[in-house]
Write a structure and sequence with these properties.
The protein has helices at about 1-5, 20-30, 65-75, 90-100, 115-120, 135-145, 155-160, 175-185, 190-200, 210-225; strands at about 15, 35, 55, 80-85, 105-110, 120-125, 150, 165-170. The protein is built from ten helices and eight strands. It has about 230 residues and is α/β, with parallel strands linked by helices. The strands form two sheets. Strands 5-4-3-6-7-8 form a six-stranded parallel sheet, sandwiched between helices.
Protein backbone atom coordinates (compact mmCIF):
# COMPACT_ATOMS: atom_id res chain seq x y z
CA UNK A 1 0.00 0.00 0.00
CA UNK A 2 2.83 2.42 0.80
CA UNK A 3 4.57 1.59 -2.48
CA UNK A 4 1.32 2.22 -4.39
CA UNK A 5 0.83 5.58 -2.68
CA UNK A 6 4.42 6.69 -3.29
CA UNK A 7 4.18 5.69 -6.95
CA UNK A 8 1.25 8.07 -7.49
CA UNK A 9 2.23 10.93 -9.87
CA UNK A 10 1.08 13.49 -7.29
CA UNK A 11 3.76 12.29 -4.89
CA UNK A 12 7.42 13.20 -5.17
CA UNK A 13 9.83 11.07 -3.15
CA UNK A 14 13.11 12.67 -2.06
CA UNK A 15 15.77 10.64 -0.26
CA UNK A 16 17.96 12.31 2.35
CA UNK A 17 20.91 10.13 1.27
CA UNK A 18 21.81 7.81 -1.59
CA UNK A 19 21.45 4.94 0.86
CA UNK A 20 17.81 5.87 1.52
CA UNK A 21 17.14 6.36 -2.19
CA UNK A 22 18.59 2.93 -2.96
CA UNK A 23 16.50 1.33 -0.21
CA UNK A 24 13.34 2.99 -1.52
CA UNK A 25 14.08 1.67 -5.01
CA UNK A 26 14.84 -1.87 -3.81
CA UNK A 27 12.07 -2.26 -1.23
CA UNK A 28 9.30 -0.14 -2.75
CA UNK A 29 10.22 0.15 -6.41
CA UNK A 30 10.16 3.95 -6.09
CA UNK A 31 12.72 6.18 -7.79
CA UNK A 32 13.85 9.21 -5.80
CA UNK A 33 16.34 12.02 -6.09
CA UNK A 34 18.68 12.90 -3.22
CA UNK A 35 18.74 16.10 -1.20
CA UNK A 36 20.80 15.91 1.98
CA UNK A 37 19.36 17.01 5.36
CA UNK A 38 19.44 20.72 6.09
CA UNK A 39 21.66 21.16 9.15
CA UNK A 40 22.21 24.59 10.70
CA UNK A 41 25.87 24.06 11.51
CA UNK A 42 26.32 27.44 13.20
CA UNK A 43 24.37 26.04 16.16
CA UNK A 44 26.92 23.27 16.58
CA UNK A 45 30.23 25.07 16.08
CA UNK A 46 32.17 25.87 19.23
CA UNK A 47 34.11 29.15 19.27
CA UNK A 48 37.00 27.38 21.01
CA UNK A 49 38.17 23.82 21.51
CA UNK A 50 39.98 22.08 24.36
CA UNK A 51 39.78 18.65 22.67
CA UNK A 52 39.86 16.42 25.75
CA UNK A 53 37.27 13.72 25.19
CA UNK A 54 36.36 10.86 22.91
CA UNK A 55 32.64 11.44 22.48
CA UNK A 56 29.80 8.97 21.95
CA UNK A 57 26.36 10.50 21.34
CA UNK A 58 23.09 8.77 22.28
CA UNK A 59 24.29 5.87 24.49
CA UNK A 60 21.81 3.18 23.48
CA UNK A 61 22.29 -0.42 22.37
CA UNK A 62 21.10 0.30 18.82
CA UNK A 63 23.72 3.04 18.66
CA UNK A 64 26.51 0.64 19.66
CA UNK A 65 26.63 1.16 23.43
CA UNK A 66 28.28 -2.23 23.95
CA UNK A 67 31.18 -1.27 21.68
CA UNK A 68 31.56 2.16 23.30
CA UNK A 69 31.67 0.67 26.81
CA UNK A 70 34.26 -1.91 25.83
CA UNK A 71 36.42 0.67 24.04
CA UNK A 72 36.41 2.79 27.22
CA UNK A 73 37.55 -0.28 29.18
CA UNK A 74 40.31 -0.98 26.67
CA UNK A 75 41.55 2.63 26.76
CA UNK A 76 41.56 3.52 30.48
CA UNK A 77 43.99 6.41 29.93
CA UNK A 78 41.60 8.14 27.51
CA UNK A 79 38.69 10.25 28.71
CA UNK A 80 35.23 9.65 27.27
CA UNK A 81 31.91 11.49 27.24
CA UNK A 82 28.69 9.58 26.70
CA UNK A 83 26.25 12.32 25.71
CA UNK A 84 22.53 11.74 26.05
CA UNK A 85 20.61 12.92 23.00
CA UNK A 86 17.15 11.40 23.17
CA UNK A 87 16.27 11.04 26.84
CA UNK A 88 16.98 7.54 28.12
CA UNK A 89 14.22 5.58 29.79
CA UNK A 90 14.44 4.97 33.53
CA UNK A 91 15.54 1.38 32.90
CA UNK A 92 18.15 2.40 30.31
CA UNK A 93 19.61 5.06 32.59
CA UNK A 94 19.77 2.68 35.58
CA UNK A 95 21.56 0.04 33.51
CA UNK A 96 23.99 2.60 32.10
CA UNK A 97 24.77 4.02 35.54
CA UNK A 98 25.62 0.53 36.78
CA UNK A 99 28.00 -0.07 33.89
CA UNK A 100 29.69 3.32 34.25
CA UNK A 101 30.53 2.70 37.91
CA UNK A 102 33.49 0.60 36.78
CA UNK A 103 34.58 3.16 34.17
CA UNK A 104 35.93 6.26 35.94
CA UNK A 105 37.23 7.54 32.60
CA UNK A 106 33.65 7.99 31.27
CA UNK A 107 31.50 11.03 32.01
CA UNK A 108 27.76 10.98 31.33
CA UNK A 109 26.32 14.24 29.99
CA UNK A 110 22.64 15.17 29.89
CA UNK A 111 21.01 16.60 26.72
CA UNK A 112 21.60 20.20 25.67
CA UNK A 113 19.75 22.39 23.16
CA UNK A 114 22.78 22.21 20.91
CA UNK A 115 26.01 20.27 21.05
CA UNK A 116 28.36 23.20 20.46
CA UNK A 117 29.83 23.10 23.97
CA UNK A 118 30.24 19.34 23.75
CA UNK A 119 32.08 19.54 20.44
CA UNK A 120 34.32 22.21 21.96
CA UNK A 121 35.66 19.56 24.32
CA UNK A 122 35.67 16.68 21.84
CA UNK A 123 38.90 15.36 20.36
CA UNK A 124 37.33 12.49 18.43
CA UNK A 125 33.78 11.32 17.70
CA UNK A 126 32.96 7.61 17.70
CA UNK A 127 29.81 6.37 15.94
CA UNK A 128 29.49 2.59 16.44
CA UNK A 129 25.81 2.52 15.46
CA UNK A 130 24.19 -0.83 14.72
CA UNK A 131 21.24 0.93 13.10
CA UNK A 132 20.88 1.42 9.34
CA UNK A 133 21.27 5.18 9.76
CA UNK A 134 19.68 7.27 7.02
CA UNK A 135 22.57 9.75 7.24
CA UNK A 136 24.76 10.95 10.11
CA UNK A 137 23.96 14.41 11.49
CA UNK A 138 26.43 14.24 14.39
CA UNK A 139 29.19 13.38 11.94
CA UNK A 140 28.67 16.57 9.95
CA UNK A 141 28.41 18.62 13.14
CA UNK A 142 31.66 17.14 14.45
CA UNK A 143 33.39 17.70 11.11
CA UNK A 144 32.37 21.36 11.17
CA UNK A 145 34.47 21.61 14.35
CA UNK A 146 37.45 19.84 12.78
CA UNK A 147 36.84 16.65 14.79
CA UNK A 148 37.98 13.35 13.24
CA UNK A 149 35.44 10.51 13.26
CA UNK A 150 35.65 6.74 13.71
CA UNK A 151 32.36 5.16 12.61
CA UNK A 152 30.72 1.91 11.57
CA UNK A 153 30.25 1.35 7.84
CA UNK A 154 26.49 1.07 7.84
CA UNK A 155 23.54 2.81 6.19
CA UNK A 156 24.18 6.39 5.10
CA UNK A 157 27.12 6.92 7.47
CA UNK A 158 29.82 6.57 4.76
CA UNK A 159 28.17 9.39 2.78
CA UNK A 160 28.32 11.70 5.77
CA UNK A 161 31.87 10.64 6.64
CA UNK A 162 33.69 11.35 3.41
CA UNK A 163 37.39 11.09 4.28
CA UNK A 164 37.05 12.66 7.73
CA UNK A 165 38.21 9.61 9.66
CA UNK A 166 38.11 5.81 9.73
CA UNK A 167 35.22 3.56 8.71
CA UNK A 168 35.14 0.16 10.40
CA UNK A 169 33.35 -2.95 9.21
CA UNK A 170 30.14 -4.03 10.89
CA UNK A 171 31.91 -7.17 12.11
CA UNK A 172 34.90 -5.37 13.67
CA UNK A 173 35.49 -6.03 17.36
CA UNK A 174 35.84 -3.50 20.18
CA UNK A 175 39.58 -4.21 20.09
CA UNK A 176 39.70 -3.02 16.47
CA UNK A 177 37.74 0.10 17.45
CA UNK A 178 40.14 0.84 20.29
CA UNK A 179 43.11 0.31 17.98
CA UNK A 180 41.75 2.66 15.31
CA UNK A 181 40.99 5.36 17.87
CA UNK A 182 44.37 5.08 19.57
CA UNK A 183 46.20 5.24 16.25
CA UNK A 184 44.58 8.60 15.55
CA UNK A 185 44.86 10.02 19.06
CA UNK A 186 48.53 9.09 19.46
CA UNK A 187 49.71 10.44 16.10
CA UNK A 188 49.63 14.28 15.96
CA UNK A 189 50.41 14.37 12.24
CA UNK A 190 47.61 11.99 11.34
CA UNK A 191 45.23 13.72 13.72
CA UNK A 192 45.96 17.09 12.12
CA UNK A 193 45.41 15.66 8.64
CA UNK A 194 42.07 14.10 9.60
CA UNK A 195 41.02 17.31 11.33
CA UNK A 196 41.64 19.22 8.09
CA UNK A 197 39.75 16.56 6.15
CA UNK A 198 36.85 16.82 8.59
CA UNK A 199 36.58 20.58 8.08
CA UNK A 200 36.68 20.11 4.32
CA UNK A 201 34.02 17.41 4.53
CA UNK A 202 31.60 19.70 6.39
CA UNK A 203 32.16 22.35 3.72
CA UNK A 204 31.18 20.09 0.80
CA UNK A 205 28.77 21.94 -1.47
CA UNK A 206 25.99 19.36 -1.20
CA UNK A 207 25.95 19.79 2.60
CA UNK A 208 25.49 23.57 2.56
CA UNK A 209 22.09 24.88 3.66
CA UNK A 210 21.56 27.29 0.71
CA UNK A 211 22.30 24.53 -1.82
CA UNK A 212 20.05 22.02 -0.02
CA UNK A 213 17.16 24.51 0.16
CA UNK A 214 17.61 25.55 -3.47
CA UNK A 215 17.65 21.94 -4.66
CA UNK A 216 14.51 21.12 -2.69
CA UNK A 217 12.66 24.13 -4.12
CA UNK A 218 13.75 23.21 -7.62
CA UNK A 219 12.53 19.64 -7.18
CA UNK A 220 9.20 20.99 -5.90
CA UNK A 221 8.92 23.46 -8.81
CA UNK A 222 9.56 20.77 -11.42
CA UNK A 223 7.04 18.47 -9.79
CA UNK A 224 4.41 21.22 -9.64
CA UNK A 225 4.93 21.90 -13.35
CA UNK A 226 3.85 18.40 -14.34
CA UNK A 227 1.26 18.64 -17.11
CA UNK A 228 -0.56 15.41 -16.31
CA UNK A 229 -1.98 14.87 -12.79
CA UNK A 230 -4.10 12.00 -11.52
CA UNK A 231 -6.28 11.73 -8.44
CA UNK A 232 -4.78 9.95 -5.42
CA UNK A 233 -6.01 6.34 -5.07
CA UNK A 234 -8.56 5.58 -2.38
Amino acid sequence: GVARLLANPLVKVVGNSHFVADEAAELLGVASEVDYPLIQLEDSISPSRTARFITFVNPRQIKGLDIALEVARLLPERRFVFAESYVLSRAERKDLDLQLRSLPNVTFRRPAENLGSLYGETALLMVPSRLQEAFGRVIIEACANGIPVVARQIGGIPEAMGTSGVLLAQSDSAERWAEAIEQIMSDPVRYSDLSDRALANAQRGEFQAPAIAAQFLELARKHADMKSMRVLPE
